[in-house]
Write a structure and sequence with these properties.
Layout lengths: L2 H15 L5 H14 L6 H14 L5 H11 L7 H8 L3 H9 L6 H9 L3 H8 L6 H8 L4 H9 L7 H11 L3 H9 L17 H17 L10 H13 L1 H12 L3 H9 L4 H9 L4 H10 L8 H13 L2 H12 L34 H9 L5
Helix pairs in contact: 1-2, 2-3, 2-4, 4-6, 6-8, 7-9, 8-10, 9-11, 10-12, 11-12, 13-20, 13-21, 14-15, 14-18, 15-16, 15-17, 17-18, 17-19, 17-20, 18-19, 19-21
Length: 374
């Protein structure tokens, strides 16, 4: 008899002799361990075990039922009737079955994801056979523990629908954001909303992706802020930091949440991107950032880093990043009137698309920012 099983049985015997266990529970656990130690249990032994388990599982305590669930969940000889009896207990017992590999069809997995308690769903989120439909259903529960289990499950790819639900919550949950950024299967382009949480390498990859997208499909060029409005932004930054972020958010097409995101970003990278995206020059944007008078404004190193970033970005790239980070829906630049086809360079009545960023922009950003810290 294996030493582990012998030790378990000896402990059960001691507890039973001291009155600490119901002898029926002792007998069921001993029978289970003996069968698990048998490579090929006989039909007679399995039938006796099935009858015994079906009779006792409904009445044994939860701790014993949970132990049995862990041991029997992935055992290839486990009678279906016994697993069904354990499953009927629900709660921790059901979660133990799910988490320890009880065979489940795709339909069963999706049913558990859609209609079960949190314990079962957390266990389900860690399974290697989790379906895309179940993944999305679990993400829809809006549970921090389920989210963490989903993102930690590297054996299963996160479908787009699941990621769309997780990303907004990750903005306010640094641990979840870090876990998403650490996944090797998610391209940086899909994680751009987490730009402010990302490492330098990840941020450069996000800039690379935005620049590549602009090169392939240039965005329509919106009207840039007039110099008077930029001057007003700079003046507001000097006297009213909160009002400055609100005004910049409005100019960027964002709302109060975007203004709060800029205010809460100590690096001031989001504000820098928004300024360049609105058409401000790096010099005017720098005046705005220094005018805020905060920790970033008082750090020469951080200001220089922001200046290098702003000088390296085309407005279209900065605008795309701003929209993705801030969850801003791009404003339509098309009027209701039909415009005739014109030269791509555009006219005063119909501005053309911004020119794609020049080749090598990402390499330039890497050269300029490679030595800068977050």
């Amino acid at each position: 008899m294996p030493s582990r099983i012998a030790t378990d049985i000896a402990e059960l015997a001691r507890l039973a002799s001291d009155g600490g266990l119901d002898l029926r529970q002792v007998a069921l656990r001993v029978k289970t361990d003996l069968l698990l130690a048998t490579p090929s249990p006989s039909t007679e032994d399995m039938e006796a075990f099935r009858a015994m388990a079906e009779a006792l599982i409904p009445v044994i305590d939860e701790a014993t039922a949970t132990i049995l669930a862990r041991k029997l969940a992935s055992w290839p000889h486990a009678p279906r009737e016994v697993l069904a009896s354990l499953r009927a207990r629900g709660g921790k017992v059901m979660a133990a079955l799910i988490g320890h590999g009880m065979p489940l069809s795709a339909t069963e997995i999706e049913e558990i994801a859609a209609d079960s308690d949190d314990e079962a769903r957390i266990a389900l989120a860690s399974r290697r056979d989790l379906t895309s439909t179940a993944s999305s259903a679990l993400a829809g529960c809006n549970s921090a523990k389920i989210d963490a289990a989903l993102v930690a499950n590297a054996a299963v790819s996160l479908p787009r629908s699941t990621l769309d639900l997780l990303l907004p919550r990750a903005l306010g949950a640094p641990a979840l954001g870090a876990a998403l950024l650490a996944r090797a299967d998610l391209p940086a382009s899909e994680l751009t909303p987490l730009f402010l949480q990302a490492s330098l390498e990840k941020r450069l990859a996000m800039i690379d992706a935005a620049a590549a997208h602009e090169a392939l499909a240039p965005s329509p060029r919106p009207a840039t802020l007039p110099s008077e409005q930029i001057s007003d932004l700079i003046a507001t930054a000097l006297s009213d930091r909160s009002g400055a972020f609100t005004a910049l958010a409005n100019a960027s097409g964002g709302d109060a949440r975007f203004a709060a995101a800029m205010a809460d970003d100590p690096s001031r990278q989001l504000a820098a991107l928004a300024l360049i995206g609105c058409g401000a020059s790096p010099e005017d944007a720098t005046r705005f950032l220094i005018g805020l008078g905060d920790d970033a404004a008082r750090s020469v190193e951080r200001i220089f880093s922001l200046v290098e970033l702003m000088r390296s970005l085309q407005p279209a790239v900065a605008r795309r990043l701003t929209q993705q980070i801030g969850g801003i829906t791009p404003r339509s630049t098309r009027s209701g009137a039909l415009q005739p086809a014109m030269d791509p360079s555009g006219t005063s009545a119909r501005p053309g698309a911004e020119r794609a960023p020049p080749r090598g922009i990402v390499q330039e950003i890497r050269r300029r920012l490679g030595a800068s810290s977050d």
